[in-house]
Every structure is written in C-alpha cells, then in structure tokens.
Fold these 2 entries.
Entry 1:
Amino acid sequence: MTPNLLVLGGTTEASALCRRLAEAEITAQLSLAGRVERPKRQPLPVRIGGFGGVDGLVRTLQDEGITHVIDATHPFAAQMSRNAIAACARAQVPLLALTRPAWKAEPGDQWQHVPDIAGAVAALDRAPTRVLLAVGRMHLADFAPNPQHHYVLRLVDPPEAPLPLPDRTVIVDRGPFSLENDRALMLDHGIGIVVSKNAGGTGASAKILAARALGLPVIMIDRPSIPTRPEVHDVEAAMTWLGAHGVDLGV
Ligand code: 3Y8
Ligand code: NAP
C-alpha cells in the first residue's frame, strides 16, 4: 500500500520523526492543535486545529486515506491520545505512540509528587515564597488560590487575557531550554520552589536539572493515565514499526 501517515505532534520527538520521514520521502502530515501563535517550521505539511473529537478524527482518517497514525503528542495531551486510540480502533488504522520516559528523581532531589494540577495547587498552600511556575498558559487560573507567592511564569506567547496571579513576573520564551539558562533564571529571581509537569524528554528538563544543581524543591506533577497502546521511545523504533506495518523505508 502507499503510505499516508498522520503524525500527532507538538513535541521534540514529533519534530525529530517529521525530519526522519521527510528524509525517507514517506508521505506524511503533522497535526497540531493550534495552541501557539508561531509553531516551529516543519519539513512536512502541517494541519492546525482539532479534528472534532473521536468522530471527527475517524472522518479525517477515512476521508484522507490515512494508513498509519503516530501519536507523538506530549504526555499531558491525554485527551488527544485517548481520542486517537478510539478513532484508530474504529477506523482500523494502525496506531503507535512515540513518547518519552518520565523523569525519575535522583538521590538528593527534593521532589514532592502530586497526581495533577489540583495537587500542585494544594501543595502550594504554604508560607509565601517565589515559585517558578513553568507549566504553560493553559492552567494558570488553577493557581489563583495561592496569591501569597511571587510567581515567575514562563509562557510561549505573551498573555492575552489578564493573568489570575497578582504578584508575578512573566517570561515569554519557548524551549528547549538549557541548564545554564534555567539556573541563572532561578538565581536572578530568587526562586524557592519549582512546579513542573513530568514531561520527560530533554526540551523541558533544564528546570529540573537546575533545581537539582541549586538544591531547590520541586513539585512534580505526575502524568495523566492513558490506556495502553503500542509505544516506543525513539524515532528509529518508530521507523522499524512502520517497516513492520507495510511501509517501504527505502533503505
Ligand atoms: C503547540 C509547537 C519542538 C517541540 C518543542 C517538548 C519540548 C520545547 C518545553 C518550561 C516548560 C510546557 C509547554 C513546553 C515545552 C517543547 C516542545 C515544549 C513546556 C510548543 C508547540 C506547541 C506547544 C504547546 C504548549 C502548551 C504548554 C506546553 C509550554 C511548536 C512550543 C509548559 C509543557 O500557550 C499555550 O497555550 C501553550 C500550551 C500546550 C502547556 C500548557 O498547558 O500551557 N506546550 N508548545 C502544539 C500544538 O498546537 O499542537 O512550536 O513546536 C512545543 C514544545 N513545547 O518541536 O521543538 O517536546 O515538550 N511546552 C510542559 O512540558 O510542562 C514548557 O517552560 O519549562
Ligand atoms: P489535549 O488536552 O489532549 O487535547 C484537547 C483537544 O485538543 C483534543 O481533543 C483535540 O481536539 C485537540 N488537539 C490536541 N492535540 C492536537 C493535535 N496534535 N492535533 C490536532 N488537534 C489536537 O491536548 P493539549 O494538552 O491541549 O495539547 C495540545 C498540543 O500541545 C498537543 O500538540 C501537544 O502535543 C502539545 N503540547 C502539550 C503540552 C501539555 O502540557 N499539555 C506540552 C507540550 C506540547 P479535537 O477533540 O477537536 O480533535
């Protein structure tokens, strides 16, 4: 069959896969939700926006004759991943997840694991300190119950709506970040604690490494649960899976 891949993206791994597919001249498109103003340029055609739930994704798979789906979304994009599992089952399209292992605490780390954003908010019910809140824009309002802290917010795009946190500094920047950058940022802002999603991978790990270097505590938000599906952690394993599912890798 002539391959026609759909990559669900928005991560470093998705970009690496897109580069590999373009090199191998395998027909594929990258899909983004449209969360940021200027997404990174990609070597494949990019579609932007939701599909319209499971039904919408099934329609896309069928109308566009998609032969394989690779879900390379962020581990916190759980709704997209759940929809992909359901839609690929209904449309009988092979699905593979390309993910990165969760970060693990090392000896000496001061991590407090919380199950979700609400758990991180509860963990901030403490005496005023200076918080590096680098969990993106979508959940900032959840942190409003703890206005006693000074928040250093890192956002991909300048905030449009008024921010729900009165005492804050906004840093507009996008990853991947470096240890040097994040260590200097924490020192410059006198950060006392870091809040982070357990994103895994390298693009967001700088703040974890910097907290480790500075001996700072981390509130680590564990990943939402996603039903099991075929899963690999690197691009070459994804290419091997494609080869085993009828794609001529041209090697
Ligand atoms: C739109 C598309 C690549 C992908 C790069 C990775 C690394 C750099 C680090 C911090 C943590 C955070 C956030 C983060 C990182 C990579 C990756 C990653 C974390 C872009 C991108 C899109 C998004 C969406 C954005 C979310 C936000 C989350 C910022 C592109 C740049 C905090 C996740 O303003 C918003 O609405 C932002 C929304 C979802 C989480 C949130 O809840 O706000 N990512 N990030 C994707 C789409 O439209 O489908 O420009 O490439 C991609 C990347 N951001 O190819 O190099 O692989 O994760 N993204 C987190 O991990 O906690 C920043 O600041 O330390
Ligand atoms: P989510 O909560 O799992 O998804 C919510 C809805 O957004 C989905 O049901 C789907 O809409 C749409 N959507 C999500 N990802 C999409 C994609 N790649 N292509 C097309 N539609 C998509 O997702 P999210 O957490 O908002 O993440 C959005 C994007 O940002 C994803 O690409 C993800 O990889 C990236 N990202 C997220 C985080 C994070 O912390 N959440 C971090 C880094 C990157 P329909 O139901 O209408 O199809």
Note: The mean pLDDT is 96.
Entry 2:
Amino acid sequence: MNPAPIGVFDSGLGGLTVVAQILNKLPDESVVYLADTAHVPYGERPLDEIRGFALDITAFLHGLGAKMVVMACNMSSATALGPAREAFPDTPVLGVIQPGSRAAIRVAAGRPVGVLATTGTVSSRAYSTAIRAAAPEIEVYEQACPEFVPLVESGESESARAYAAARRCVEPLVKAGVRTIILGCTHYPFLSSAIAAAAGPSVRLIDPAEETALQIDNTLTELGARAPLATAPRHRFFCTGDPDGFAEIGGKFIRSRIERVERAVWGVDLGKVLA
Ligand code: DGL
C-alpha cells in the first residue's frame, strides 16, 4: 500500500480528462496535477521543446513524492515517455497513446481508424506507429485540429465555433470511411458533443483516458502500490501560468470543486535549466 499521490500533467485543462477517470475509478487515490499553462497550447511547438517541458515536469512531480507519473498529454507521451522512464527508473511513467491505441484496435475490429490530434502529435505519427505495430491491417488517418485546444481553454467547448471547427476536422475522416475516432489530445473529450454531432451516430469516439485509468489501476496493483482503502484522498493542482479560471472551468470538467490552485513558476519551482 502506498498513500502517495499519482502525478498527472498536461499543457492545461486537457489532462483533467485523466484525472476525472482516476477520481471515478480509483476514488481512494490522491492526485497532484500540473497544468503547464505558461506554455499552452503545446500543439504547434516543436516536439524537442515539448520533450524538455515534459522531463522537467516529471522531475517536479517526482520531487513532490508522486508514486507514478502519468503524461496526460499526447504530445508529451509521443516524445518524452522513453526518456522519462530512463531518467526515473524507479517510478512508473505512463502515457496515453498506447492505451488509446489499444482501445481503438479493440473497437475497430480491423476497420480504418481516425485520429484527431494536435499538429505535433500528428507529425510524430505516434498513433499510426502504435496501431500498425499491433494491428498492421488497420489503416490510420490522422487529422490535425489546431483550433480545438484554445476553444477548450477559453471555456467555449459548447459554442457554435466549436461545432463548426469539429465539422471541419471530422469531415475528412468520415469521408475516408472511419467508424472509430481516437480523441488523440486530452483536451478533445471536452469537445465530444461537438465532435459526436459532426461524426454522426455510426462513429465511435475513443477517449484514451478510460483505458489509461485501467492501466494505472493494473500497474499500481501489480506493484502493491494502491492507496489504502477508505483514506481521504488529497488532491493538489498547480498551474505554471495565471491560475485564474482554471479552478472554475476545471472544476466543472471533473465535476468536483477545485478549492485551490497553486502556482509553480518555471525557472524557480521547476525547469531550473530550461527556465
Ligand atoms: N492536451 C495535450 C495533448 O494531449 C496538449 C494540447 C496542447 O496544448 O496543444 O496533446
């Protein structure tokens, strides 16, 4: 048994899709969450830069005593998972791309799979690589959606702009014949109403956060590191940028009140090298 928190991070609100699954499926676990809002959106930044952020944030969460670190960010998972596992060999580090790919392969049953993701994740081809490695017969179509993250961060997930952007991004995938679409950025499940409306009822949306929570559960159980039952979990939330708005929008997303958001400053609290 290990009461230490699970460290989770993303560029902003998106990783709360993973936190919501942890709160729901593993209610005894504590979470320490970092939103790198000083750098959001990650989407158009070079993958090398994201790798640096992800390694520094992993070090920060490790320093706070996290018993596991979850990269609840596809770009970080695509570029920093291997280096983080090397840098922190005693701490399990999980990403969202393998779990998302696994869930999609199960649902697609050999038919083509679509991926909606940020420009960086699409350019990494991480989903195509992961799916083809396990199911070479499945065709994968990846579509970048640079408008989505700013819509979520500004609390406009249900706006007419969100519905129009979803139609633009989903249309090429539906035309290509996909019936399974991976929400390949952790922000996108917050746009699932708009994406589902654009995709129509015959398309299944895959939120990698669900399968990621299963993997968290399995990994902690295998290591004998689950939190003791019926302890009151304690959650902490950090933002690297202005924390205004995070508690309000984030609290709605996870359906739980976020009492306090702490500030973590680049160059002071984390990333002393990168600043
Ligand atoms: N939510 C992150 C991801 O899954 C990053 C989104 C962004 O900041 O562009 O890739």
Note: The chain has a mean pLDDT of 95.
